[in-house]
Amino acid sequence: MKMLTNCKFFTAKTAGFCFGVDRAVKIVYNNLDNRNKVVTLGPIIHNRNVVEDLERKGVFAIDDVSQATADMTVVIRSHGVGKNVYDKLAEIGSQVIDATCPFVSRIHKIARDKTEEGCTVLIAGDKTHPEVVGISGHCVTEPVVFSDEKELVSIIGSGMLSGKNVAVLAQTTYNTQVWEKCLAVIEEKLPDATVFDTICNATSERQREAAELAKECDMMIIVGGRHSSNTHKLSAVCEKYCPTYLIETASELTGLNFGNAEKIGISAGASTPAYIIKEVQQTMSEILNTMEEFNLEAIDQSFQKIYTGKKVTGIVTTVNNSEAMVDIGTKHTGIIPASELSYDSSAKACDIVKKGDEVELIVLKISDKDGIVTLSKKQVDAVKGLEAVEKALEDGTVLKGTVTNVVKGGVILNANGVRVFVPASQATARRDDKLEELLKKEVDFKVLEVVAAKQRVVGSIRAVAKEARAAARAKFFENAQVGETAKGTVKSITDYGVFVDLGGIDGLIRKPDLSWNRIKHPSDVVAVGDEIEVIIKDIDAENGKIALTYKKDDENPWNKFVANYAVDQVIEATVVSITSFGAFAQIIEGVDGLIHISQIANTRVGNVADLLEVGQKVEVKITEIDTEKNRISLSMRALLPEEEAAEEEAQEAPAAEEEE
Description:
The chain has seven domains: about 10-15 and about 200-300, 3-Layer(aba) Sandwich (Cobalt-precorrin-4 Transmethylase, domain 1), CATH 3.40.1010; about 20-100, Rossmann fold (3-Layer(aba) Sandwich), CATH 3.40.50.11270; about 100-200, 4-hydroxy-3-methylbut-2-enyl diphosphate reductase, catalytic domain (Cobalt-precorrin-4 Transmethylase, domain 1), CATH 3.40.1010; about 305-375, CATH 2.40.50.140; about 380-465, CATH 2.40.50.140; about 480-555, CATH 2.40.50.140; about 555-660, CATH 2.40.50.140. The chain has 16 helices and 32 strands. The longest helix has 19 residues, at about 460-480.
C-alpha cells in the first residue's frame, strides 16, 4: 500500500445516518428483547454490515407482506409503505411497529390530502424505489411519477395534465440539482401547480456539502450500501467535479488508486453507520501516514444540545403557506408554524420569510421520536418589541404598527411582534369613523400603558392623529391664502355641502359652490373618498373655518353665454322650474333666464302651470342681460304679432283702471 504523505483528507460534516434511518435502526434493536419473531419488511437499511448484524441477532427481512404470519412482529422500515400493506398486515393479524421516517409520513399525508381534493399528484423520484411505491400507495387516485426534468416535460407535453389541478412533491432522497431543473420547468409550464419541496433537509444539505467538497478535492470517496438510492445520488452529485468512488467498507480502500491526489473528500450516505465512517477515516489516516482531526462530533450529533426555551439561529430551507422548515445545526428538522411566525392570524408563512433567510428563534417543543423541533419567531420578535415599546413609553416617541384584528371595544396592532390593544376611543381621529377601515393598515401610535409581566400594552392612534392634525392646522393657517388651489379628500357629504380633508384640516364646500349647474344634492357631484382640487374661497382663522369652492372660473357657463348671446336674440330654451311669478328656462347648461308671468302670453295668465310645464321647449326672445347680477330676462310674448300685442294691451288697460 503506497503512503501518500503529501495528501490530506476531509470528511463532510453531514456524512452518515440521517434521522429517519437512525430512528428505524434503533427501533429494531430496542425491540429485540421485547418481542418474538421480529422481522423487517425489506432490509431495514441498505447497509450490509447492519443487516448481517441483525441477522446474527435473529432479525430477518421478509421480501413481501404475503410472507408475514400472525405470530410475527413486522417492522415497517423508514421508506414507508402504502395503505394496502397496513390493511393486509391487519388482515393477517401481525403485530406492526411503524418505523416510517416522520418526513416520509408527512409526504403520505400530503399525497392523500391532495388526491382527496381532486388534484393530480406528480412525484419526482424513482418509480421502483420503495419510498415512491409507498407514497403512491397513499394516493386516492393514480399519481404520475417522473424521474427527471426531461420526463416531466414529456408528461406535460402529452396533454394528460390539461385542465387539472396539479400538486408536485419529491422523494425525500431526490437529487437536489435535478429538482432545481424540475422547478424551472414547473414554473414555466405549470405555473398554477402547488409545489411541496419534500426533499429531506438532511439529504439536501448532505448533497450540497458533498458537492462543495468535491469542487475543492482531487478525489471523493462515498461510503454506503451499493443498493442505497441516496448513496448513489450522493456519488452522482460528486462525480461531476472529480473522480468519485463508492465503497461499502474500509477494506475496499486498498483497491483504490489514489494517484497523485493531494486532497481527498469523504462523505457517506444516510444508511451508513458512524462506526463504518470512523473505520474508513482510520484506514485513510494509515494510508496517508497522517492523522487528521475527524469531526465525529458532527456525525454523531446529539439531540440533547437543544432544549425548550433555548434561543437558536436557523436558516430557512423550505417555506409554504402554512409553515417554514429551518436548519438549526442539528439533525432535527426545525418547523415554524405560520402561527409562530407572526401575530397576524391571516398571514401566510411564505409572506413572512423566504428560503435562505436567517432567523432568530425560540425552541417551543422537541420531539426526539419524530426528529422535529417546533420553533417560534414571533416570541423572539415579541421580546425585542417589548423593549422598544417600554422605551417608547418613557420617551413619548411614536411607533408604527399594523392593525391585525378589530375586536369588541377596539383594535389589535402588531408592532414588531408586540400585541397592542387600542381602545375604540383611541383608535380613530373622529368618533364616527369606522374601526373596520383600519384593518390591515399600517398606523402610527403612542404607547399609553405597558404591563410587562402580563405583556399587556395599550396604545393610542388618535393621540398621534390629533397632534398631526394640530400641526397641519397651524401650518395651514400660517401659509394658506384666499384664491389658492389646494388638493383634498372628500370626508363627508351633507345636504348643505361637502367637507374636504385638506391634509389635517377640513374645509367646507357649500352646495352653491360645488357646480355651475343646477344640482339636487351634493352627492350628484362628488363621493366620499374622492380626491379633488378646490379653491380657497375664505379663511376664518379666528374660528378655524375654511370656505372652499369646487367651481372653476374657466368652467363658468356665464362667460360662454355672454360670448355667444345678445339682447333681442331669439333662442330656444327649456323650462326647468315654475314659480308663481313666472318660469325659469335653461338657455345652456348652467345658465337660466326668467320668463316673467307677464311675458308668457297675450292674455292674462293666472297660473303659469296652466300654460307651461317642466321640460317643455319654448321659443323666447332675450329682452335684458344684467351682467352685474348675472340675470337674464326672456319673453315669449315679444314674439307675438304686434297687433295681437296691442290688442292685449288695450284689453289690459281698462282692467288696470278698475284696479286703481
